[in-house]
Write a structure and sequence with these properties.
Elements (H helix, E strand, L loop, with lengths): L3 H13 L3 H13 L4 H22 L4 H25 L6 E6 L7 H12 L3 E4 L6 H11 L3 E5 L7 H12 L7 E5 L5 H7 L3 E2 L3 H20 L1
Parallel strand pairs: 1-2, 1-3, 3-4, 4-5
Helix pairs in contact: 1-2, 1-3, 2-4, 3-4, 4-5, 5-9, 6-7
Length: 222
Amino acid sequence: MMTPDEILRGLYDETLVGNGPAVLGLTNDALQQGMEPQTLLFDALIPSLEEVGARFERGDFFVPEMLIAGRAMAGAMEVLRPLLADTGVQTIGKFLMGTVKGDVHDIGKNLVNIMLEGAGFEVIDLGVQVPPEKFVAAIEEHQPDIVGMSAFLTTTMPMFKANMNALQKAGIRDEVIVMVGGAPVTQEYADAVGADGYAADASATVKKAKELIQRRRDLVTA
């Protein structure tokens, strides 16, 4: 039988290489041994995904490696999520995510979702082809801290502005932090549409989201 330390090391290593079946097996072994779900999350899974992000930033990993590591972690999260909810683990914040109307690309968005969940965010995914009115309704229903809008095509990028206008019109623009991203999106474009934040990839999104939430909380308490 593996020791708790061996299980954590194994979880870290197998997540790093994207070995989904091994990650799931180790997660189940750990729980059978009575290990705490948050220990698995904070001592193995999140550090491993952070290392994946760091390697991606250095150019040692590419999108496929990030995706398979993300998927491996997602398998463990399926098992851990209900248990974490029961233990009342504090989430960092609520993140509402969707690919804009006219765009059906979701690989990048899904990867960002996994990274955000792994970092401790509660993620609500609206899917693809999300029209402005659906973003508005979901914000009113879920009261997220951050709304993430993704576009993969240059032809769908103008939907960011349409979405921002819809939030403004509904009187909820100031209630949420808006982040935009996707392959053709730049910081300049994000600034031009009036978004609060932009990130070039999944690991940068997590960093930026934490930073934006902290900044807003500091303002509130100041």
